[in-house]
Amino acid sequence: MARYKMLVLSRPTEGCEDEYNDWYQNTHLAQIISLPGFIAAERYELAVNMLGEGAYPYIAIYEIETDDVQSAFAALQDAAGDGSIVMSPAFDTASVYASIYAPLGERISRS
């Protein structure tokens, strides 16, 4: 079965950081991994901005395992459209970046 990563770079609505983090960690991640093909999720916050301005303060990385990534994406779109995924007003939807990536080459690690 093929594996993918979905990256979501986002920021909270101005003044709503606590609400954003609570909703994302305690509601949203579980809603996403309940969808077909989505098997795990993890969040990170910006530790060091290495280049440029306007770095996203948060990233979520979702693991997808499926032989049909388009159907996993369709399930996500359907859930967003039918209200199965509850979005928080603390999530700044105007600035979010989200994409699904396929592995390219073998994973390299230090021995």
From TrEMBL:
This is EthD family reductase.
